[in-house]
């Protein structure tokens, strides 16, 4: 099994992480998760563009070109003979003695691994329950930072209520899931939070919006209050690993039972074709 350690492809057992990495001290880093279908990366360019955008927003410079990074990830996939799974890649602001102030002279550290991960067929078919809770995260959720405490807390809270995912709201306005974006469908129109600083603009979200428009659906990117969930016809989450996963029940601050409807199924099918 190969991994990426400090920008190099090496055997996993030889990997070494410095204890003074700013990722450990401050969660000072960013990441991407890229899906591999039949040995081929899906929407790799969009992920790499978001990686570069996150780096820019965090005032972090890359220790290699984006082309070099792409080729490194391709080598990882090939060496590990990855078929259906994910590639995780992260970049931290490098190694230095613990100090809140960063200097801009440390070299960023890129690490990564691959993992087989077949589609979760049962969830895609039967849907999931979600737990509605407060969004306690910071105000730069558009950055894909490894600093995920708000997301982690929400996910645990959801699991403690037998839910697969948390759906978060900020002052009553629904933002997104702990590791996914949320869509509601009402009267053949799709609703999802706009790509502002309050959510991560998911790659799957973007692909699904495009697919929906191609299929002739109207997509409204506007924030909606959590109470409208009760009136939705259908709902689903999107992410690199969960693709288009239907929601069958909302629990917690909103209670609603939904049918897994025809538009969700149509989007799932169209997504499957695009893979
Ligand atoms: N929102 C959050 C907070 C996430 O962590 C993720 C993915 O991990 C997403 C949305 C979905 O993004 P993507 O479709 O690019 O995987």
From TrEMBL:
Question: Record's SUPFAM superfamilies?
Answer: D-aminoacid aminotransferase-like PLP-dependent enzymes (SSF56752)
Read off the PROSITE patterns from this record.
Answer: AA_TRANSFER_CLASS_4 (PS00770)
A single Pfam family it belongs to is Aminotran_4
Tell me the function of this protein. Acts on the D-isomers of alanine, leucine, aspartate, glutamate, aminobutyrate, norvaline and asparagine. The enzyme transfers an amino group from a substrate D-amino acid to the pyridoxal phosphate cofactor to form pyridoxamine and an alpha-keto acid in the first half-reaction.
Q: What is this protein called?
A: D-alanine aminotransferase
Top class in the EC scheme:
transferase
Species of origin reads Alkalihalobacillus alcalophilus ATCC 27647 = CGMCC 1.3604
Q: Which family does it belong to?
A: Belongs to the class-IV pyridoxal-phosphate-dependent aminotransferase family.
Alphabetical UniProt keywords:
Aminotransferase, Pyridoxal phosphate, Transferase
GO MF, one example: D-alanine-2-oxoglutarate aminotransferase activity
Q: Which cofactor does it need?
A: pyridoxal 5'-phosphate
Return one Gene Ontology term, BP aspect: amino acid biosynthetic process
Cellular component GO terms, alphabetical = cytosol
**InterPro entries with a match to the protein in the record:** Aminotrans_IV, Aminotrans_IV_CS, Aminotransferase-like, BCAT-like_C, BCAT-like_N, Class-IV_PLP-Dep_Aminotrnsfr, D_amino_transT
Looking up CDD domains in the UniProt record yields:
D-AAT_like (cd01558)
Question: What is this enzyme's EC?
Answer: 2.6.1.21
**Catalytic reaction equation(s):** D-alanine + 2-oxoglutarate = D-glutamate + pyruvate
The annotated subunit structure for this chain is: Homodimer.
Q: Which domain of life is it from?
A: Bacteria
